């Protein structure tokens, strides 16, 4: 019979929000960490993408979170020259969003059953994860054994 894994805790819940996009053509991944997921921080992410990919049409597949429909986001999208096209998924269909595989890997490798002493520690773990996938950008979609190697040095 298995034994329940015990993870130490300080008794508070540390949280880091991460916005992400993956280029489905070359699997390049862009992550943007924020203290919380708000319309303002989502707009920061959109501006970062627009600056990173000037003169490109950026198609984002999104769930129907409130922040994606916020007035400030709509105002930004109504400005002439914005580079975005949003595709909103039907409810309860994360399997249709390419970034969800990355979120699962991030949670399994960095968040679940791992003790982070504070938010800063969690943020550093996410940074190491982001650095790893930027160096091995197609590993998360192509090679499961690479994931095991990554787990060994978190």
Write the layout of secondary structure elements.
Layout: E1 17-22, E2 29-34, H1 39-52, E3 58-62, H2 71-78, E4 84-88, H3 99-111, H4 119-135, H5 139-142, H6 144-153
Parallel strand pairs: 3-4
Antiparallel strand pairs: 1-2
Helix pairs in contact: 3-4
Describe this structure in words.
It is a single chain. With 154 residues, this protein is an alpha+beta fold. Helices cover 43% and strands 14% of the residues. The protein has six helices and four strands. The strands form two sheets. Strands 1-2 form a two-stranded antiparallel sheet. Helix 3 crosses helix 4.
Helix and strand element order: EEHEHEHHHH
Largest sheet: 2 strands, antiparallel
> Which stretches are poorly predicted, pLDDT < 50 over at least 5 residues?
143-154
**Terminus-to-terminus distance:** 28 Å
Strand order of the largest sheet: 1-2
Q: Looking at the structure, what is the overall shape?
A: globular
Into which percentage range does the β-strand content fall? 5-15%
- C-alpha-based Rg, rounded: 17 Å
Q: Would you count the extended β strands for me?
A: 4
Total helices: the number is 6
Question: Mean pLDDT across all residues, rounded?
Answer: 79
**Helix fraction?**
40-55%
Class based on secondary structure composition and strand pairing: alpha+beta
């Amino acid at each position: 019979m298995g034994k329940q894994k015990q993870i130490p805790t300080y008794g508070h819940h540390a949280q880091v929000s991460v916005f992400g996009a993956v280029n489905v053509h070359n699997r390049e991944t862009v992550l943007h960490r924020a203290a919380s997921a708000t319309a303002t921080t989502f707009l920061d992410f959109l501006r970062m993408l627009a600056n990173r990919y000037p003169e490109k049409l950026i198609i984002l597949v999104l769930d129907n979170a409130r922040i994606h429909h916020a007035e400030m986001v709509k105002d930004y999208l109504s400005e002439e020259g914005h580079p975005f096209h949003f595709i909103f998924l039907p409810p309860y269909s994360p399997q249709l969003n390419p970034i969800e595989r990355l979120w699962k890997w991030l949670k399994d490798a960095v968040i679940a059953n791992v003790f982070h002493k504070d938010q800063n520690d969690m943020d550093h773990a996410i940074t190491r994860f982001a650095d790893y996938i930027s160096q091995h950008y197609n590993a998360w979609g192509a090679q499961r054994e690479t994931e095991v190697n990554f787990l060994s040095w978190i």
